[in-house]
Write a sequence for this structure.
């Protein structure tokens, strides 16, 4: 018969639970910002592929329509940069997102989505 018990104690369980809760809180607060960034990146790439010969005004209108459908609120049509590199259309969007975590603690995240990478 074994004299020492094996396993995790109550203190270890509490520390593990606290770490898990803090990580889950960060994930739930930061997750929507990253989901929006990936939606912006997807929209930038799709518009760059679809509208290769369109004018700047048409591209901005397409962006506004797509942003409404995809629920993109951080970047407007006037905020995107449209350039040409050779014969390729390059669309980019840069923005900063502030995410409040708890009380007066928060995080600033700088995002930059480019159609050519």
């Amino acid at each position: 018969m074994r004299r020492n018990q094996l396993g995790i104690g109550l203190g270890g369980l509490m520390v593990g639970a606290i770490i898990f809760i803090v990580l889950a809180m960060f994930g739930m607060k930061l997750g929507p910002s990253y989901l929006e960034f990936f939606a912006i990146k997807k929209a930038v790439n799709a518009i760059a592929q679809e509208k290769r010969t369109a004018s700047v005004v048409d591209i901005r209108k397409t962006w506004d329509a797509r942003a409404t459908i995809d629920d993109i609120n951080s970047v407007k049509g006037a905020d995107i940069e449209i350039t040409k590199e050779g014969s390729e259309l390059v669309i980019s969007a840069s923005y900063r997102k502030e995410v409040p975590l708890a009380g007066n603690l928060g995080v600033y995240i700088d995002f930059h989505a480019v159609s050519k990478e």
Remarks:
- The chain is about 50% helix and 25% strand.
- The longest helix spans residues 10-50.
